[in-house]
């Protein structure tokens, strides 16, 4: 809380006592999902300073007094991981009383989906390391970041059955097998290949590029891309994709 000067000393005392009961700080934490070679990943940083030095965590830090929360999310992610120019969406606010030691801190969680091959993360000046972890192999994290991740991952598993996500996780041209593997990685279950293919093609969401894979040892598969107009319409109205 910023210091204030009042002529009435009694008022100063009253305000200082009241300040002990207000929220002490507001922060941002980012859950960044990536996909590569049929595996789903999340981006973590290792703290290089402070009481949690050496611990892995979600990219996150404090919101500055003079910036919006969206601007803070972009700045924090970029400064700690060098990942930038991506669309971050607000997910949920976390404010358990004991989530941060010795202070009352509320954090706003953001999430994003990215194609891992487009980024080369590098740790910022306060981070010892930055690394992609498979979602099944995430280490113990600082504070309540494991809870934040689990909550966001559960949200993702629900979201993928109601919105056509994957636009940013897959390459511009992809096979139906790659799309199937993305769904399997997020839902953490095996899906019927033939049934999946029929359901997805029925939505007219995919466009046959009339191209096939190159430089593969197996039979080259057809390459598809998303129809952006239909994709955006489905994003607006949603759909139910029963696996």
TrEMBL record:
The protein's matches in Gene3D superfamilies, at most eight in alphabetical order, are given as: Nucleoside Triphosphate Pyrophosphohydrolase, Winged helix-like DNA-binding domain superfamily/Winged helix DNA-binding domain
Domain NrtR DNA-binding winged helix: start-end pairs = 166-226
Q: Does the keyword DNA-binding apply?
A: no
> What CDD domains does this protein's entry cite?
NUDIX_NadM_like (cd18873)
UniProt keywords (A-Z) are: Hydrolase
State any single GO MF term. hydrolase activity
Tell me the ranges covered by the Nudix hydrolase domain, including all copies.
Answer: 27-150
Top-rank lineage group of the source organism: Bacteria
This chain belongs to which protein, by name? NUDIX hydrolase
| Organism, scientific name | Emticicia oligotrophica (strain DSM 17448 / CIP 109782 / MTCC 6937 / GPTSA100-15)
Provide the taxonomic classification: Bacteria, Pseudomonadati, Bacteroidota, Cytophagia, Cytophagales
């Amino acid at each position: 809380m910023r210091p204030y000067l009042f002529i009435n000393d009694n008022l100063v005392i009253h305000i200082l006592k009241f300040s002990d009961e207000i929220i002490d700080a507001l922060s941002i934490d980012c859950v960044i999902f990536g996909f590569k070679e049929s595996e789903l990943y999340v981006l973590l940083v290792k703290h290089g300073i402070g009481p949690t030095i050496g611990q892995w965590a979600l990219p996150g830090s404090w919101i500055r007094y003079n910036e919006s929360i969206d601007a803070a999310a972009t700045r924090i992610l970029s400064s700690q991981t060098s990942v930038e120019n991506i669309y971050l969406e607000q997910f949920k606010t976390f404010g358990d009383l004991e989530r941060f030691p010795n202070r009352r801190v509320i954090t706003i969680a953001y999430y994003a989906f990215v194609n891992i091959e487009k980024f080369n993360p590098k740790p910022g000046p306060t981070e010892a390391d930055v690394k992609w972890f498979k979602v099944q192999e995430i280490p113990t994290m600082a504070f309540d970041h494991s809870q934040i991740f689990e909550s966001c991952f559960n949200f993702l598993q629900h979201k993928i059955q109601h919105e056509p996500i994957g636009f940013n996780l897959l390459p511009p041209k992809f096979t139906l097998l790659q799309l199937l593997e993305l769904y399997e990685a997020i839902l953490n279950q095996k899906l019927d290949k033939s049934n999946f293919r029929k359901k997805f093609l029925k939505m007219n969401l995919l466009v046959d590029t009339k191209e096939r894979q190159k430089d593969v040892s197996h039979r080259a598969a057809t390459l598809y891309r998303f129809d952006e107009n239909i994709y955006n319409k489905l994003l607006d109205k949603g759909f139910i994709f029963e696996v």
